[in-house]
């Protein structure tokens, strides 16, 4: 077919840098929180490029945007894409690579005069990051029918504004019915956001699974006491309970092993004084696994530990679920296509799970789906120092090109 | 002698309540941080009462105040007293009871027309709490020669003002040479600030020892990472290190047992987000024991644990000593006098250590010293809910009266 076709690295990087200028932060990176003025400017830039490339642009009531490239035959397109919203201190690659990589594939095909049998589509989904409106991956979740549109539009953000109001105000609310266009298959190119590819010296990750996520909040209430005059046996130390829980989460993750990770990233105690036993402690627990049974096991063990701890320490504990997504397994045939395409292009490739959530995991509910990962320097993401080298980006988009051609013929 | 002599409970409580009105907080309790305007007003009130009771009032360059009641013979007085400064959210008993209990003893003797052989002295020492200027027990430390006056005067407070400037401004700097008057013996009445007397149903504590105190600050520096994409084995989690240290401190205190206590009361991690491995953590460790060898053992074990932990986790740790006081053992004869006096008055009494620091531990460097404890409701202190019932206060001051008479005859 078109085995020698390659994308244009410089053009790809140039678009990433141009989009990164919108909402650029002083020290590097950028801030384009979903449905802000900066997001609008980013949308206008990308939609402008879509028009330049001859794509038929539509958007739905969630502000999801689709650029369609007709094929020689009708039917649902092979879709690629990701998101262009960022966290508050985001990099220029997270999400953007998947969208602009898709545009680069389209331009490469345009230049070569290739028209695929099935239509192609480059999409970006609203509010993937969830940094302003919870939950994350909201646009793709609504697109696949996993959340009613009305619920999404009524979601209040951290600044009090609602999704629907913001969509209206910035003019991003489209008239295409939600769920359109239908999709034949979905492929998302994304930076890894972790250290595994770099550590392994491997260029391409063929993502097999997305970890299930369990976010919990625990609040312990004990009794504030003098650290000198209160014997250990008479203490009801909320701070100790929080720290013991954090220590347990590490032991639990190590013991379960495999893909299991466990993190206490947020912890606050009160009154937070050197010589006072804490009466209040608040912490979050982030548990993830690609295997839902093991993830449930981790949740169950944590709950049992916390219950016994609270009873032993004579304190109260309140539990709240902040987020819970089951793991997602991608279509094995799709994963094999990514792997084969990378090999055919001479790139090293490994199968791996995704530790972060992505739009692809929502699309997997409605069509065969795969993800392509490229390395993240030092595993850093959601950080202005996020970086992937031009040749690594190029390798990823060439794999995307090949997989899309493969699927569209 | 004067076995039937008793103090006046109502007069005692009335003085405690009057002094508690100075710097009174809206919800109860009071705030008279050392060398503030509120402290000055408190000093003026107490010095006024000293004059009313016929005491010869002197103050030294540290602002320590002494009210002398001459005896039938000259020589160093038997001294009692404590402090009248409070923490920011203090109660009306901590410190104040020891000073106003001393005045109540004097008034009781005055009414009965009793003149003791040795002089008596009621003192209050500057900045016992250390809530504005470190270290705590500063006035009594200077009085006994444990800290050069110049160093104390140059000490900068949390608000940037120096001790010397404050003493000048509020006019509390006296002209008596530091260390005067000399002291024959010292007895301090104080609330327990812990739950042991109340839990044991005992009226009087005969304090044998004051716990040694070791305050340390630990700062861990690791690497911030994505909580989903970073495998456990590649983490350098400063938050985990802090929590594991807090968990270890509890195990350590339990294992050493006896009087050993260990507390992590302050802990902060950064960036403090649910899905980010912490790169910074800061915590304090408060270790106390009446046995200095065991306290040193606890410090050594903690240091070894932290070193191994930091190495295993691949993070940096910085250590700083915030405070270190050796334990103090009171004169056995003095402790026996407290015990005997309590028994003679028909009160239940137990020997016990003090978990908090007190001026008496400084005085113990220069004279036979003892402390009398009365119960604290729910063990609460440094809190506006601090409370000791009038009859419990009365019992303590009657014991103080008896011990002082015993020492002064």
TrEMBL record, chains A, B:
<dbReference type="GO" id="GO:0046872">
    <property type="term" value="F:metal ion binding"/>
</dbReference>
<protein>
    <submittedName>
        <fullName>Zn-dependent hydrolase</fullName>
    </submittedName>
</protein>
<dbReference type="GO" id="GO:0016813">
    <property type="term" value="F:hydrolase activity, acting on carbon-nitrogen (but not peptide) bonds, in linear amidines"/>
</dbReference>
<feature type="binding site">
    <location>
        <position position="382"/>
    </location>
    <ligand>
        <name>Zn(2+) 2</name>
    </ligand>
</feature>
<dbReference type="InterPro" id="IPR010158">
    <property type="entry name" value="Amidase_Cbmase"/>
</dbReference>
<dbReference type="InterPro" id="IPR036264">
    <property type="entry name" value="Bact_exopeptidase_dim_dom"/>
</dbReference>
<dbReference type="Pfam" id="PF01546">
    <property type="entry name" value="Peptidase_M20"/>
</dbReference>
<feature type="binding site">
    <location>
        <position position="190"/>
    </location>
    <ligand>
        <name>Zn(2+) 1</name>
    </ligand>
</feature>
<feature type="binding site">
    <location>
        <position position="83"/>
    </location>
    <ligand>
        <name>Zn(2+) 1</name>
    </ligand>
</feature>
<feature type="binding site">
    <location>
        <position position="94"/>
    </location>
    <ligand>
        <name>Zn(2+) 1</name>
    </ligand>
</feature>
<dbReference type="InterPro" id="IPR002933">
    <property type="entry name" value="Peptidase_M20"/>
</dbReference>
<keyword id="KW-0378">Hydrolase</keyword>
<feature type="binding site">
    <location>
        <position position="94"/>
    </location>
    <ligand>
        <name>Zn(2+) 2</name>
    </ligand>
</feature>
<comment type="similarity">
    <text>Belongs to the peptidase M20 family.</text>
</comment>
<keyword id="KW-0862">Zinc</keyword>
<feature type="binding site">
    <location>
        <position position="129"/>
    </location>
    <ligand>
        <name>Zn(2+) 2</name>
    </ligand>
</feature>
<keyword id="KW-0479">Metal-binding</keyword>
């Amino acid at each position: 077919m078109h085995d020698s076709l390659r994308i244009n690295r410089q053009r790809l990087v140039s678009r990433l840098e141009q989009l990164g200028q919108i909402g650029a932060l002083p020290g590097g990176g950028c801030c384009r929180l979903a449905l802000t003025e900066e997001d609008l400017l980013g949308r206008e830039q990308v939609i402008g490029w879509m028009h330049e490339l001859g794509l038929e642009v539509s958007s739905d009531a969630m502000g999801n945007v689709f650029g369609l490239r007709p094929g020689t035959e009708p039917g649902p397109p092979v879709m690629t894409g990701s998101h262009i919203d960022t966290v508050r201190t985001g990099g220029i690659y997270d999400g953007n690579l998947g969208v602009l990589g898709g545009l680069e594939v389209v331009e490469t095909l345009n230049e070569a005069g290739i028209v695929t049998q099935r239509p192609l589509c480059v999409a970006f989904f609203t509010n993937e990051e969830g940094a302003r409106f919870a939950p994350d991956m909201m646009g793709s979740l609504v697109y696949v029918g996993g959340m009613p549109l009305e619920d999404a539009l009524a979601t209040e953000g951290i600044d009090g504004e609602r999704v629907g109001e913001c969509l209206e105000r910035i003019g991003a609310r489209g008239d295409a019915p939600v769920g359109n266009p239908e999709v034949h298959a979905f492929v998302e190119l994304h930076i890894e956001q972790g250290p595994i590819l770099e550590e392994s010296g491997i260029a391409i990750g063929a993502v097999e699974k997305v970890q299930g996520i369990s976010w919990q909040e625990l609040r312990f209430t004990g009794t504030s006491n003098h650290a000198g005059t209160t014997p250990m046996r008479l203490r009801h130390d909320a701070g100790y309970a929080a720290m013991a829980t954090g220590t347990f989460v590490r032991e639990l993750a190590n013991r379960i092993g495999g893909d299991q990770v466990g993190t206490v990233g947020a912890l606050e105690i009160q009154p937070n004084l050197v010589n006072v036993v804490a009466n209040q402690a608040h912490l979050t627990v982030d548990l993830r696994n690609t295997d839902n049974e093991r993830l449930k096991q981790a949740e169950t063990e944590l709950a049992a530990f916390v219950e016994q701890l609270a009873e032993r320490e004579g304190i109260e504990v309140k539990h709240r679920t902040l987020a819970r997504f089951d793991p997602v397994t991608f279509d094995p045939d799709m994963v094999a296509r990514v792997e084969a395409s990378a090999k055919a292009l001479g790139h090293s490739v490994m199968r791996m799970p995704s530790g972060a959530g992505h739009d692809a995991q929502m699309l997997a509910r409605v069509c065969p789906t795969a993800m392509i990962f490229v390395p993240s320097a030092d595993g850093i993401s959601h950080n202005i120092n996020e970086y992937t080298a031009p040749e690594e980006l190029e390798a990823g988009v060439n794999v995307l090109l090949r997989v899309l051609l493969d699927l569209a013929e």
